[in-house]
């Protein structure tokens, strides 16, 4: 029998990509994305997908099959607000968002066997109290929670992108490892860059006069001489022999990742030579730094999207490599192939078909 999947805010469908790559027999029963434009983009990547505006809308339409795997994102800025927001409601002594409420309602009614959550590192920081409360609620529903603080730079993608992942398993149907150290792998920024890039991505020579070299304690090598108060991080330039920062959402005004195309070194660090060339990353390089296979980027409908849309989709996606590690541990066994779902001895679960 297939692994029945439902995703909530998996904007470009990285989870189905991973399951297909691993050779797991699965079926996506539904995808929930609030905005109509997001749903159109998702269908461009995954045609014939069953789309829902929200979880409540999905619950009104009964599914003939049980949901085995449920993926959701904890979007910190939306889940909790310091000030009253139109999407925020008061519930259980702290501000909660309808998004999280709807997830809880969905779980109570559907009781998926496996949950995978992605969230900000703030969940182990200033949002820890809220996150602990959520974990307690999952425990009361019968889930065992496995928490991981993972950064893509440690697992084969040269991008410093730290996120919290929570794998929740109903009634201990399976077990997860304490860490993912066996998957650790070094990678180089330069190996993820295109060899030939259109000239439109390069900064003009006149603009580079506004840049300055920074000290060795920085992860980047050049920055604006006069930072803007509104956004001091714009126009930061990185060495192609280092790693990329967390891919920013392109909101204009230089909020992209920039790289030194031809490095001239002084004391082991790049400096601004008269022939130095600096460019921003291309949309495909953004997707590649998220581990997305090119077959999904090269579809006709996706390539018709604007560059800003392509940048945004990548910056908001879940890293392919991270989900691949989690699904390997959760649903596959090296000795029995990728169509096997691991369950504890004596427990009921999905068996190989």
Model description:
The protein is α/β, with parallel strands linked by helices and 353 residues long. 26% of the residues lie in helices and 20% in strands. The chain contains eleven helices and 16 strands. The strands form five sheets. Strands 3-2-1-4-7-9-8 form a seven-stranded mixed β-sheet, sandwiched between helices. The chain has a three-stranded mixed β-sheet with strand order 12-13-16, with no helix packed on it. A two-stranded antiparallel sheet has the order 5-6. Helix 2 links the parallel strand 2 and strand 3 (51-52). The longest helix is centred in the N-terminal third of the chain and has 13 residues, at 98-110. The model is unreliable at 78-96, 335-340 and 344-348 (pLDDT under 50).
């Amino acid at each position: 029998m297939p692994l029945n999947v439902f995703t909530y805010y998996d904007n470009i469908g990285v989870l189905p990509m991973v399951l297909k790559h691993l050779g797991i027999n699965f079926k996506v029963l539904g995808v929930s994305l609030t905005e109509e434009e997001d749903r159109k983009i998702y269908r461009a990547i995954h045609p014939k997908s069953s789309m829902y505006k929200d979880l409540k809308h999905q619950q009104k339409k009964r599914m003939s099959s049980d949901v085995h795997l449920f993926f959701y994102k904890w979007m910190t800025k939306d889940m909790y607000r310091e000030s009253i927001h139109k999407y925020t409601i008061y519930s259980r002594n702290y501000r909660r968002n309808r998004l999280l409420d709807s997830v809880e309602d969905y779980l109570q009614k559907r009781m998926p066997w496996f949950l995978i959550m992605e969230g900000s590192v703030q969940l182990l920081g200033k949002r820890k109290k809220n996150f602990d409360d959520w974990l307690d609620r999952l425990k009361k529903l019968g889930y065992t929670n496995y928490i991981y603080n993972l950064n893509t730079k440690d697992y084969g993608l040269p991008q410093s992108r730290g996120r919290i992942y929570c794998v929740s398993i109903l009634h201990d149907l399976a077990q997860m490892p304490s860490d993912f150290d066996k998957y650790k792998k070094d990678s180089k920024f330069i190996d993820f860059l295109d060899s030939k890039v259109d000239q439109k991505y390069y900064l003009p020579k006149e603009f580079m006069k506004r840049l300055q070299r920074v000290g060795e304690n920085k992860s980047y090598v050049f920055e604006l001489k006069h930072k803007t108060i509104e956004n001091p991080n714009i126009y930061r330039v990185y060495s192609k022999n280092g790693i990329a920062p967390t891919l920013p959402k392109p909101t204009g005004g230089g909020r992209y990742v920039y790289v030194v195309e031809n490095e001239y070194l002084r004391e082991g660090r790049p400096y601004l030579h008269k022939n130095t060339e600096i460019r921003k990353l291309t949309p495909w390089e953004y997707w590649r730094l998220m581990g997305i296979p090119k077959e999904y980027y090269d579809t006709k409908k996706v390539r018709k999207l604007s560059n800003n849309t392509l940048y945004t989709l990548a910056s908001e996606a879940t890293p392919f490599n991270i989900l691949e590690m989690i699904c390997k541990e959760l649903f596959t066994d090296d000795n029995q192939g990728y169509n096997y779902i691991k369950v504890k001895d004596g427990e009921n679960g999905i068996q190989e078909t």
